[in-house]
Design goal:
elongated, about 10% strand, two-stranded antiparallel sheet, about 55% helix, mainly alpha
Length: about 180
């Protein structure tokens, strides 16, 4: 009787081990599929649309690095139409005229321009602006930068709105064509 129970226990442990390996293999397949989907999405639209909690932490850095790397060289301007963001000279122009903004406002607009027509979250902006671990800004500082930037862009463009707030998600820098079509 005990030999039968021992044999049965070994059989059950073997079944559990096979199930665990299949489960781990399935998890790896799902992770690989998510990575492949993210790569395709990155190639098609240039930035991730949905971000997991883990990705939010590194999204801004990865977004900039991948966009810069994918083109080999940075484009002359990151936006077309009325607004241009020159990443080499670090200048913002509206209708060809430079406008004065602070370094932090430039960096906010830079990330929005790299991801234009896609949502940029508060955590992405915080990560982009404050890369050092000892920087611990209040998250609401992003609202201040966005507000000041909007005012400057609106003033220089006779009232045009380039930055759209997406409630509960973040902000989008719209292309002029997209804004007029909406």
């Amino acid at each position: 009787m005990s030999d039968t129970l021992s044999a049965r226990l070994v059989e059950i442990e073997s079944m559990l081990e096979r199930s665990r390996r299949r489960f781990e293999e399935g998890q790896r397949l799902v992770e690989d599929a998510h990575a492949a989907i993210a790569e395709v999405q990155q190639a098609l639209i240039g930035s991730p649309v949905t971000l997991s909690a883990e990705e939010n932490e590194e999204a801004a850095s990865r977004l900039l690095a991948s966009l810069k790397a994918s083109g080999q060289t940075l484009p002359e301007t990151l936006c077309g139409g009325r607004l241009s963001v020159d990443p080499v000279q670090r200048l913002i122009r509206i209708d060809g005229h430079p406008i004065g903004i602070t370094e932090m406002e430039y960096r906010v607009l830079e990330l929005l321009a790299f991801a234009r027509n896609n949502v940029v979250t508060r955590s992405m902006l915080l990560k982009h602006l404050y890369r050092r671990a000892d920087d611990q800004p209040q998250p609401k500082i992003i609202d201040v930068f966005i507000s000041k930037l909007r005012k400057k862009l609106r003033s220089a463009s006779s009232g045009a709105e380039f930055i759209e707030t997406i409630p509960q998600r973040g902000w989008i820098l719209r292309d002029l064509e997209s804004a007029s079509a909406a």
